[in-house]
Amino acid sequence: MDSTILGSWSDNSSTWNISKGTDTSYVVSIISNEKEIKFIGHLVKLNNYYFLDILPDKDKILDTDYATYLESVHSFSRIWIYKDSIQTADMNYDWLKKKLAEKNQTLKFEWLSEERILFTASTQELQQFVTKFADDTLAFSTKLTSYRKIN
Predict the structure, then answer these.
(1) Which of 29, 49, 72, 120 could staple 17 via S-S, CB 3.0–4.6 A?
(2) How far, CA to CA in Å, does 52 sit from each of 24, 33, 69, 101, 113?
(3) Is it the case that residue 20 has pLDDT exceeding 90?
(4) How far apart are CA 38 and CA 70, in angstroms?
(5) What is the C-alpha separation between 145 and 142, in angstroms, rounded?
(6) The predicted structure's pLDDT at residue 43
(7) Residue of 90, 79, 73, 87 whose CA lies nearest to 139
(8) All residues at 6 or more sequence positions from 146 whose CB lies less than 8 Å from its CB, including other chains
(9) Among residues 78, 28, 36, which one has the least CA distance to residue 54?
(10) CB-based contacts of 44, cutoff 8 Å, min separation 6
(11) pTM value?
């Protein structure tokens, strides 16, 4: 558990409230356009890189009749943590599709549709993959967002 990430973080369009969850998890509440979505988050340090793994918190979805239809899909972002700010970058989906199409790549996955990939590789294999490309500015080039700490 890294207490540096706890608190409220804001950019021009959203606010992230990050609080301690259970054990090693965080509660990540994202407020955008006056709507709030809650996630369960895990901060992962691989070598010298931090990644934030979040998935929707089905227990916090207001209309529980529809919660059963949601997929528990992880979103994995590179995160840089500073004293008064954080930056996040999602993996570039176009880069990922090209990388997975390479003949020499061995990461196990299935195409669910043209826009959806299901990784079937082990956690260790996935961690090795993101660590290998953590410094690649093409791999983590989308949605680089900076948030300032507001409390």
Answers:
(1) 29
(2) 12, 23, 24, 25, 25
(3) yes
(4) 14
(5) 9
(6) 92
(7) 90
(8) 11, 85, 86, 87
(9) 28
(10) 50, 51, 52, 53, 127
(11) 0.80
Q: Which amino acid is at 137?
A: T
Structure tokens at 22: 């259970």
Tokens of 23: 């054990």
pLDDT value at position 11? 83
CA dist 133 → 23, 34, 36, 49 (Å):
29, 35, 32, 11
Q: What is the pLDDT of residues 73-120, one digit of tens each?
A: 667 789 988 888 888 888 888 898 899 888 888 888 888 887 778 888
CA dihedral 88, 37, 21, 145 (to 10 degrees): 10
Domains of the chain: 3-149 (2.40.128)
